[in-house]
Design goal:
The complex is a heterodimer. In chain A, 81% of the residues lie in helices and 0% in strands. Chain A has 14 helices and no strands. Chain A is globular, with a radius of gyration of 19 Å. By secondary structure, chain B is an alpha/beta fold. In chain B, helix 4 crosses helix 5. The longest helix of chain B has 15 residues. Classes of the chains: A mainly alpha, B alpha/beta. At the A-B interface, helix 1 and helix 6 of A face helix 2 and helix 3 of B.
């Protein structure tokens, strides 16, 4: 097990540091923070709501992640396959799982760093009023879990192609489906052609519904398990896709 | 020690590697030859555990690459084709990463990295991004990575491809120095390299092993092995008929600036031909003795359709 840990952490460290050796990380962080702020204050009407909570902030996270998370995940495997370093990495004494997990964790922690850097908004809301900081924490945890689920989907699609642009577009499209599954557009349409049980199933796969529950301040075990299983399934799928595609 | 048993790889309907079997022992440097697309790299990718074989097995120091991959990979240093590297890292950071993943820490890690850097002569570029390095240095970073853990087995896919003559020489020196302690496979299509460093060569064509022996054995299979070339400005009349009648001579060929006398397999005809020419007092400028060219063998074996049969050449000679 310690060997496992050593391998995963070696892969993790290299990947995480690599974000910061190019401007990519800084561009991403700035864009993320600017958009998160702009959406909260201008579209979310943070001040007009006159409530000391971060609902206006968290509401936009699924939509923000929809195109920003694929921007992180697109390079995970596509770049390794394009440059051929995947051959080097996978002939090191590590398992496919170690490599997939290490790289995923690096991307996830990076997304976590972006999330933590939004702390001024938490300071603001605490300065203006007395928010339920438990609910705020739950919102952050929920947002972090959701980011992980989006990243796992992105990881899988990044493994499927050598082209980062294709990886980005595919990941955004699949993430869009998972997000939209909870909106009235999809559910209304589904209800008109599917039996109620299937409509519920579609709704149950929606990131929006699960995230809404958590950001209300209720961390339900079911929502936790949902996001963790999405990550598990898509990371497993990543190993399968890699196994299939790595030689090409 | 590397044992390859009936290794086969299909890509869809295409059979890239077809029942390849060989064993390489400690101290051997095996040159893996073949035209592009013959299956050299695919075979190496299976030995190093990157690709799973369709059937057959490869063992590294007794560990099956498929069922016990971690143990096999730990004993193996691999330089993939083109030496892919994380180009945004420096050699320092890259080698630390490799050392970490290979389980070396602290003073041990430093010692290992220092040794690899010294062997590959990377001191001057140690802290430059790999991106900015010349092709020769990139290749050496790849080599340092493969040597870092002092592996028992080295698999090097075209280690000198694209390097200038000095760099080629350096890489060969590194390989030659390590050779007695290790089991080494290198793939190449530069045949002089086989002469320079390999103790044994395997020629692979269309996924199959078509020749296996020491470079000398293979040279001996050349049509021009032990051939004698007579440089003459004017070829005397009937010279060809006279020469072909000599004992041990198989055929005569006309080459630019003279005649080439080909021996029957296993015959040494130099002194016979030389004596005959002296007796006749032919105006010969130079007598050249050929050891046989690997290149000829390579072409004859890998593209058998183009082979010019010796008998046809003899007939030609008789007619002239």
């Amino acid at each position: 097990m310690s060997l496992r840990l050593r391998n995963v952490s070696a892969v993790f460290k290299r990947e995480f540091v690599s974000y910061f050796t190019t401007p990519v990380a800084y561009v991403f962080l700035i864009v993320f923070l600017a958009l998160a702020g702009a959406l909260t204050f201008y579209i979310g009407n943070f001040f007009d709501r006159n409530q000391a909570d971060l609902d206006a902030f968290f509401t936009f996270h699924p939509w923000l992640y929809l195109f920003l998370i694929p921007a992180i995940s697109m390079r995970l495997w596509a770049e390794e396959r394009k440059s051929g370093t995947v051959e080097f990495l996978l002939t090191m004494p590590v398992t496919l799982w170690d490599a997939v997990l290490g790289k995923f964790l690096a991307a996830w922690i990076f997304a976590g760093v972006a999330l933590v850097l939004t702390f001024p908004i938490w300071l603001t809301v605490n300065y203006l009023g007395e928010p339920d900081n438990g609910a705020v924490l739950a919102g952050y945890i929920g947002s972090f879990l959701m980011a992980g689920a989006y990243l796992a989907i992105g990881s899988c699609l990044s493994a499927a192609t050598k082209n980062q642009v294709i990886a980005f577009v595919l990941a955004a499209a699949i993430c869009f489906l998972f997000t939209l599954g909870g909106t009235n557009i999809v559910l209304g349409f589904a209800a008109s052609i599917l039996p109620q049980s299937l409509v519920d199933l579609v709704a149950s796969f929606s990131f929006l519904n699960h995230f809404d529950q958590i950001k209300k301040g209720v961390i339900d075990l079911r929502d936790l398990i949902f996001f963790l299983s999405v990550m598990g399934v898509f990371l497993y799928a990543t190993t399968l896709v890699l196994e299939l595609k790595k030689g090409q | 020690m590397i044992e390859v048993q009936s290794l086969t790889k299909d890509f869809g309907p295409i059979r890239a590697v077809d029942h390849v079997t060989f064993t390489v022992s400690k101290g051997e440097v095996l040159g893996f030859l073949g035209p592009n697309g013959a299956g050299k790299s695919t075979t190496m990718k299976m030995i190093t555990g990157f690709l799973a074989p369709t059937s057959g097995a490869a063992k590294v120091c007794g560990h099956d690459v498929e069922s016990d991959p971690i143990a096999a990979k730990r004993r193996l240093g691999y330089l993939p084709e083109g030496a892919p590297l994380y180009v945004d890292m420096t050699p320092a950071a890259f080698l630390r990463f490799v050392a970490g993943i290979r389980g070396f820490k602290g003073a041990e890690q430093k010692r290992r990295i220092d040794r690899a850097v010294q062997m590959a002569q990377l001191e001057t570029v140690y802290n430059q991004p790999i991106d900015t390095l010349s092709k020769g240095f990139k290749r050496r970073v790849g080599l340092a990575q493969a040597l870092l853990h002092d592996p028992e087995v080295l698999v090097l896919d075209e280690p000198t491809d694209g390097l200038d003559p000095n760099q080629k020489h350096d890489v060969r020196e590194i390989i030659r120095e390590m050779a007695p302690e290790k089991t080494i496979i290198i793939s190449t299509h530069i045949l002089e390299e086989v002469d320079a460093i390999c103790t044994r060569a395997i020629i692979i064509a269309a996924g199959k092993v078509v020749a296996d022996g020491t470079p000398k054995d293979l040279e001996a299979r050349s049509r021009t092995h032990q051939a004698v070339t007579l440089k003459m400005r004017a070829v005397p009349a009937a010279a060809q008929q006279m020469l072909v009648a000599l004992p041990g001579v198989e055929a005569i060929e006309t080459v630019p600036g003279g005649l080439r006398v080909l021996p029957k397999p296993g015959e040494v005809i130099y002194s016979t031909v030389e004596g005959f020419v002296r007796d006749k007092a032919w105006p010969v400028d130079d007598i050249i003795f050929a050891r046989g060219h690997l290149e000829d063998v390579f072409r004859e074996i890998t593209r058998p359709g183009e082979r010019r049969p010796a008998t046809a050449a003899a007939a030609e000679g008789a007619r002239a």
